[in-house]
Amino acid sequence: MIENYNKMDDSKMDDNKDNIKSIIEISKYLFKKKLVSGKAGNVSARFKDSGMDVIAITPTMRSLGDLKEEDIILVDIEGNNLTKGIPSSEVYLHLAIYKEKKDVGGIVHTHSIFATGFAFSDKKIKRLEGFGKIKSPYLAEIGYEKPGSEKLAIKSAEMLKNEDSLILKEHGVIATGENLKEACLLAEFVEDIAKTQFISNTLNLSDSF
Q1: What is each CA distance from 80 to 27, 84, 152, 179, in whole angstroms?
Q2: Contact yes or no for 42/11 (Cβ under 8 A)
Q3: Class of domain 2-205
Q4: Distances (CA, A) of 189 to 30, 50, 117, 170, 179
Q5: Does 188 participate in catalysis according to the annotation?
Q6: Angle (CA) 80 81 83, round 5°
Q7: Domain residue spans in the chain?
Q8: Alpha helices in the chain (DSSP H)
């Protein structure tokens, strides 16, 4: 499979480079906006090659703020490497979601400060208008599962069947979209509404205002 993949024509290679450049741009944006820090977080995009789903994903143990084209890993939908390198430890989380949701073309997993703060608390994040129809009062969430585990992948994909974002308790945030830009915008929106709720709650508890 890898041998065949490496024999792609120039037009397909150009398409792949566009997807890879998009991952790098979004990764650096997430890092700059402090939605990820250190070597945390991961980003992926799905595209077609000869009818086959190919997933481009960030590598393991690398800062999203300092990636180059050669750092991005390509895998098939089962997780088989199509290029050199080691993909994010959450690769199977991404793949499980792609398998469950055929309309998803991009996934962003962040550890943004405010949303992750809620994830480590007993408080839920209220939904606000601004990113699709409000179907329930709170953002969807699942209980803690070990990062990189099969249980986390399965539970997340199941919960995301009818959701576009998910709070992972004691962990972080997953945002999905029809493309990577939409997933990034959603991750940023989740952080903003968590920040708004935190400020609102703080002000409501204060006697000095």
Answers
A1: 23, 11, 20, 22
A2: no
A3: alpha beta
A4: 12, 35, 15, 20, 16
A5: no
A6: 160
A7: 2-205
A8: 2-5, 10-32, 91-100, 113-119, 150-159, 180-205
pLDDT tens for the chain, 209 residues: list them: 334 444 444 445 455 778 899 999 999 999 999 999 999 999 999 998 888 899 999 999 999 999 999 999 999 999 999 999 999 999 999 999 999 999 999 999 999 999 999 999 999 999 887 666 667 789 999 999 999 999 999 999 999 999 999 999 999 999 999 999 999 999 999 999 999 999 998 988 866 54
Q: Which two tokens stand for residue 194?
A: 């968590």
DSSP-derived secondary structure for 122-161: SPPPBP-SSSS---SSB--EE----TT-HHHHHHHHHHGG
Q: Of 25, 69, 78, 90, which residue is the catalytic one?
A: 90
Please tell me the pTM assigned to this model: 0.89
Interatomic CA distance for residues 160 and 175, integer angstroms: 9
